[in-house]
Every structure is written in structure tokens, then in C-alpha cells.
Write a structure and sequence with these properties.
InterPro entries: Homeodomain-like_sf, HTH-type_Tx_Regulator, HTH_TetR, TetR_C_Firmicutes. It holds the Pfam family TetR_C_8. GO terms for molecular function: DNA binding. The chain has about 180 residues and is mostly helical. It has two domains: about 1-55, Orthogonal Bundle (Arc Repressor Mutant, subunit A); about 65-180, no CATH class. The protein has nine helices and no strands. It is elongated, with a radius of gyration of 19 Å. The relative contact order is 0.10. Helix 1 packs across helix 2 and helix 8 (about 135-160) runs antiparallel to helix 9 (about 165-180).
Length: about 180
């Protein structure tokens, strides 16, 4: 019984996500009502409220899912270049989700969370000797690399993944590795 219930919950959440994706192609999240979301998903309002309070909750859940998938990539790899490549491939593998998260919800928060995890797993201190004079510069270089990587990824997604994930990853890896050697 529980497995069937889980499948129903999974199915309900899936169709609500798909309905939200569909509506987000037409307008902004703030313009989407629960009524039209339920109508598009062909579920009643009680079903919606059983899982969510507002449409934003669906988007936040999707962001958490993306973060978990990216975190899993991070846990699998011991090499920064592999992490970057696998992350780009993951984003490219679900283009619709990536577009929604990174163009409609400003997914830079997800990327910032992931990059903080990357930083914890691949600390700059292990790559160069940090003196007191170099530490502020290293921090600024890291921030530059983080924000620059986010900008590259967002631009890539907004431009409909026009460049292969491998090329984007190679570009980001090159820039990050150059920054780490400064």
C-alpha cells in the first residue's frame, strides 16, 4: 500500500511540475495561480495543497532536487575538472528543468551552494601556499571564479545549450585552473 501511495505522490508531483513548466513558458511565476496550475495538471486544489502551499514550493523542490543531483556528482569525483564536466552534462541532460531553474528562478543560488561544496572538497590551500598577503587576493580570485562560472553556465543555458557541455566544462576548467595558479 505504501509503495502505491508513493507512486501516486510521485506521479502527482510530476504532473504538477510539468504543468508548472508549461505555464512558466508563457508567463512569470508570480502570475501563475493555483487554480490554473491545478487545471493544467488536471488535479483538484486539495491534491495540490496536500503537497504544496504555493506554486513557488514546486520550484523550490525542483531546485533542491537539482542541488542533490549536483552534490551526488561532487561526491563521485576526486578531480575538479571531472566535477565541472559531470555537472555541465547533468544540466544538459535535463534541458527543460535547467532552463526553468536557471532562467525563471535564478538558479545561481544552487550553483553557489554547489561551488561552496566544491571549494570545501578542493580547497585552494591545497593547491597553493597562502600567506597572509596572498589570502585576500586568493579569496577575491575565488569569488571571481565562482561568479564567472555561474555567469558562463547561465548564459549557456539561456542560449539553449548551443555549445556542447564538454566545451563549456573545458572553458570553465581552464579559467578556474588559471585562477588557482595565480
Amino acid at each position: 500500500m505504501d509503495l502505491r501511495k508513493d507512486r501516486r505522490v510521485q506521479y502527482t508531483k510530476k504532473i504538477l511540475r510539468e504543468a508548472l513548466f508549461s505555464l512558466l513558458n508563457e508567463r512569470e511565476l508570480s502570475e501563475i495561480t493555483i487554480t490554473e496550475l491545478c487545471k493544467t495538471a488536471d488535479v483538484n486544489r486539495n491534491t495540490f495543497y496536500r503537497h504544496y502551499n504555493i506554486p513557488l514550493d514546486i520550484l523550490l523542490e525542483i531546485e533542491d532536487d537539482v542541488f542533490e543531483k549536483l552534490s551526488a556528482v561532487l561526491r563521485k569525483s576526486t578531480n575538479m575538472d571531472d566535477v565541472i564536466l559531470l555537472s555541465c552534462q547533468l544540466l544538459e541532460s535535463d534541458k527543460q528543468m535547467s532552463k526553468i531553474v536557471f532562467t525563471k528562478a535564478d538558479g545561481s543560488g544552487i550553483l553557489s551552494r554547489i561551488l561552496r561544496s566544491v571549494r570545501n572538497n578542493f580547497p585552494v590551500e591545497n593547491q597553493i601556499e597562502l600567506t597572509d598577503e596572498v589570502k585576500p587576493f586568493a579569496e577575491m580570485a575565488y569569488q571571481f571564479g565562482e561568479k564567472g562560472s555561474i555567469a558562463v553556465i547561465k548564459n549557456w543555458i539561456e542560449n539553449d545549450f548551443s555549445i556542447p557541455a564538454e566545451s563549456i566544462a573545458q572553458m570553465i576548467s581552464y579559467l578556474v585552473n588559471k585562477l588557482n595558479k595565480l
